[in-house]
Records
---
Amino acid sequence: MDLSDSTLPGCLLENLAKPMGRVGFYRYKEIEMLKNIRLSIVCLLLLSPAATGCAAQRAGLKDIGFAIQVGAFSEVKNAERLTKKLQKKGIQAFYFKRENGIYAVRFGDFARKEDASRTARKLVKDSTISSYFIAAPQQDMSASHREPSLEKAPAPSLRKPAAVVKKREQEPRREKSDMGAIAARTAERFVGIPYRWGGDTVVEGMDCSGFVRAVYNLCGVNIPRTSREQYRVGDVVAKDELKDGDLVFFGSSLDEITHVGIFVGSGRFVHAPRRGDDIKVSTLDETYFLKRFVGAKRYF
């Protein structure tokens, strides 16, 4: 019988307390209270995200470190040729279209800038690449994605410059909603690019998940390689709650996911349809995709 039960009649509690003594009785109630507290903590732990698998899902994601960016090609075939050259050396490279319409090639995920520079210098020495740019990890940024650019140093002046009072400006924080929009706009820049890069072999092409991975790489997030692995991480999103940058998955079932794309708003998503085809925009209500839609995930 639980002596801590407040529903017991007072006379019964009094009779039970007599043989134990007043001190022993209250000590007993204290022990029972501690047991109830421990039980409550266990219940909370069992219902926590870590116990239900949410924490494990996040384990598949990590931020991209320093990367090496090469080239400024006006024609996509030149970027493809360099990517193929790097792939033959076992380097997982991909090419992409910048905001200014120029193609560049990017690869690597280094913890330190020095490591990225050392690898790049070795590739220059081997005549694999010529010039290069070390792309820093994604920092706080506004909703508009800013491309790295080179600035010319001001011409030297004989006149002593006037003292300038520096005004400290607060950089805008990178919100998760901003990064989803950035991922969507980045994906849209791939539309029309031939589907022949970033996979195990370049000319043979990559699958749709490789395209998605390349876009997220540019946004500073490293996601798993295959569409099935990508579905195992991130947060589940209902179809009517999709936002820019979410991944949409297709297949015969959750165990048989065969395709993935990046949602870009208004029921549309960008994807790489098949090898040899161009990256394109499709809609979720098209019969083929409507029947095969299995779910969506969010990573920002």
---
Amino acid sequence: MRCLKVDIVRQERLPWLSGNRNLTKRFAYYLGWRCEGAAIKAVAVEFGLDWKTVKEAEKEYMKAKLALQPAPAPRVIGVDEFSRRKGHTYNVVVSDLEERRPIWFEGPDRTEESLDLFYESLGARKCGRIRIAVMDMWKAFENSTRKHCLKAAILYDKFHVLRHLGDALDAVRKSEYARVTEKGGRKFIKGQKYNLLSRWENLDLKGRQALRKLLKANKRLNTAYLLKESFGQMWDYHRARWARRFFENWRDSLKWQKLRPFEEFAGLVDRHWDGIAAYCESKTKFALGFVEGLNNKIRVIQRRAYGLRDPEYFRLKVLTCMLPPLDYKNPPEITHSLRR
């Protein structure tokens, strides 16, 4: 509108308009809500809109979801890296394991400096509240956490440790396949990688039958499989000294077995024992699988967003993937900053 007193044009801000002036806020949030269960292109075709318009509406919807959340003040965090593409291009993802949602997804790589950015954005006071940090055995993450969170106990993620054990079992499988001949039982080993690496209770009847034949035909794989299955009991102990006694007995059982990959795995566990034993001493037990489950969810988001070159959109998708949907019929009034 034009002001007659000073002869200038002024614009009135209408609260029901979205960031895109061609859309109402309610319709923009409805587009964002639809994108939670459908691809951007499908929503754009349904409403006869350009896909870029739908993408910007979804970004506005996700920013509103984030703005309604309280500022992160975690006590138990999970730290992991996510590979965006080939060539060692990573993002660091930090989760609040008590609230069960990601709270930070940035960083150009997985170095110590990248995780420092998270702790600096959190602030010294909130860093002091962190009591437990769950991560893999990547030294850069541990160094950054010990530098900023002096009271935090470092726990190594159970699923990352067991992944190393699975790699050791697979190395034994490959060596046995190369050692034996077709008549010596190679046919029993071929195609059994999934059955060997899976837990017995997760196999169907056909898988269990094939695994029984394999373990009966190959003594070394039978020994390696039993060692793999028994190692998971270590996380059931509630005292570090009991867990250590179990580990020592497990490692002693490797003698004379000629399973070099398992011996290397035992050395890896021994070098990182403090981070593994800290879980046994922790009074609060929480789901360690959330960190790995979130990583799988991010991979699904990445596949759905294939072709988009907007890192801010990807960041918002990750940070809001665990949040409840907004009521698009009653758009909230956002009056504070989205960045914390």
